[in-house]
Specification:
Blueprint (H helix, E strand, L loop, with lengths): L2 H20 L7 E2 L2 E2 L5 H12 L16 H5 L2 H24 L2 H10 L8 H27 L5 H14 L7 H25 L2 H24 L1
Antiparallel strand pairs: 1-2
Length: about 220
C-alpha cells in the first residue's frame, strides 16, 4: 500500500467521522443536565483533516489560498451570492419577527456566548474564528473531498445538510425546522461561493458577514 492510497483512505475515514459527529446533537446527550454538543468537534476534525491531507490535492493550497482571495472577490457572481446570503438572513429575521417570535429565544439558546453584545470586540473575534473554522472544515475539506468521489450537487447538499444538523438545538418542531432550513440555505450559498472560487476565504467572507448581520439584527431586537 503506497503513501497516496493511505492518504485517500484517511480522507474517507475523516469524512465519516465528521458525518457521525454531525448527528450527535440529535441524541440529546447530557452531562449534569447540560446538553453535550459533540457536533462542534466535527469542525475541529475538519480543520485538522484539511491541513493533514493536503498532499492528496494537486496544490497544497487548494481550496484555501489567501493569495487569490481578493481577485476571486471581484467576480460579480461571487458578490451577488454574498449579497444573497445577507438578504436571506434579513428575510429569516423579518419572518421570525412577524410570525415566529419564539425563534429569537431559540437562537439565543443555540448561539449562547456568541451573542454577548457587552464585549463587541470579543464577539467579533469569536464570529471570525467560528466562520473561518467552519469554512475550512465544511467547504475546503468536506465539500472539496466529497466532490472528488461524487457529483457536485450531491456533495453540496450532503455538506449543507450535515452543516445544518451541526446547528441543531432541541425546541418546538416548527422553530427547529425553520432554524435548520435557513442554516441549510446559507450553507448552500457558501458552498456555491466555494465552488465558484475554490477558495474558503471567499465563503468565509460571506459566512462572517452573514453572522455579523444576524448578530446586529438580534442586537436591535434586544434594544427596541
Amino acid at each position: 500500500m503506497n503513501k497516496t492510497t493511505k492518504m485517500h483512505k484517511s480522507v474517507i475515514i475523516l469524512i465519516i467521522i465528521m458525518t457521525v459527529l454531525s448527528f450527535t446533537n440529535l441524541l440529546n446527550l447530557q452531562i449534569n443536565g447540560e446538553q453535550l454538543k459533540l457536533s462542534g468537534i466535527s469542525v475541529i476534525v475538519g480543520i485538522i483533516a484539511y491541513f493533514t491531507t493536503r498532499k492528496t490535492n494537486e496544490d497544497k493550497n487548494e481550496g484555501f489560498n489567501i493569495k487569490t482571495f481578493i481577485g476571486k472577490l471581484k467576480d460579480k457572481t461571487v458578490i451577488l451570492l454574498i449579497l444573497l446570503t445577507l438578504m436571506m438572513n434579513v428575510i429569516c429575521f423579518v419572518i421570525a419577527k412577524l410570525w415566529l417570535p419564539d425563534y429569537i429565544e431559540h437562537i439565543t439558546a443555540r448561539a449562547g456566548d456568541f451573542l454577548d453584545f457587552k464585549n463587541l470586540s470579543v464577539m467579533v473575534i469569536e464570529l471570525v474564528v467560528m466562520a473561518l473554522g467552519e469554512e475550512i472544515a465544511w467547504r475546503a475539506f468536506f465539500q472539496k473531498q466529497t466532490a472528488k468521489i461524487m457529483p457536485f450537487i450531491p456533495s453540496l447538499i450532503l455538506a449543507s445538510v450535515l452543516f445544518a444538523l451541526g446547528h441543531f438545538n432541541f425546541g418546538t418542531p416548527i422553530i427547529v425546522f425553520y432554524d435548520l432550513l435557513f442554516v441549510f440555505i446559507d450553507a448552500l450559498i457558501y458552498g456555491l461561493i466555494f465552488k465558484k472560487t475554490d477558495n474558503a476565504w471567499c465563503s468565509f467572507m460571506a459566512h462572517f458577514l452573514a453572522n455579523l448581520l444576524s448578530s446586529a439584527l438580534f442586537s436591535i431586537q434586544w434594544t427596541v
